[in-house]
Amino acid sequence: MSGRDPRATGRFRAPAKVLKPDARIFQDTLDQLDLVAEECVFVDADPASVDAAKALLLHAIPYRGPEELILHLQKLKMVW
């Protein structure tokens, strides 16, 4: 990985030996970046991954297109 802080881009690849939708992938990422689940947003088209993220209290949004995503983000007061 480059010397850049992964939080600057919002993208991070966890080194866990598991894949989505295993909740450990989300927990590993939160732990490594020292983030609080309730302060994070996860967007994915896979319902199983969204459910796993919700189980860890992330704001998990099912991706069904840009318009619906914007509505979800507006509810979270992330987009005006």
Please outline what is shown here.
By secondary structure, this protein is an alpha+beta fold.
Structural class: alpha+beta
Question: CATH homologous superfamily, by name?
Answer: HAD superfamily/HAD-like
CATH topology tier name: Rossmann fold
Q: Low-confidence segments, ≥5 residues, pLDDT <50?
A: none
Counting H and I runs of at least 4 residues, what is the number of helices?
A: 3
- The strands making up the biggest β-sheet line up spatially as 1-2
Helix content: 25-40%
Task: Explain how this protein is built.
The protein is α+β, with helices and mostly antiparallel strands and 80 residues long. The protein has a single domain (17-75), classed as Rossmann fold (3-Layer(aba) Sandwich). It has helices spanning 23-33, 47-55, 66-75; strands at residues 41-44, 59-62. Strands 1-2 form a two-stranded parallel sheet. Helix 2 links the parallel strand 1 (41-44) and strand 2. It is globular, with a radius of gyration of 13 Å. It starts with 22 loop residues before the first helix and ends in a 5-residue tail after the last helix. The model has no long low-confidence stretch (mean pLDDT 85).
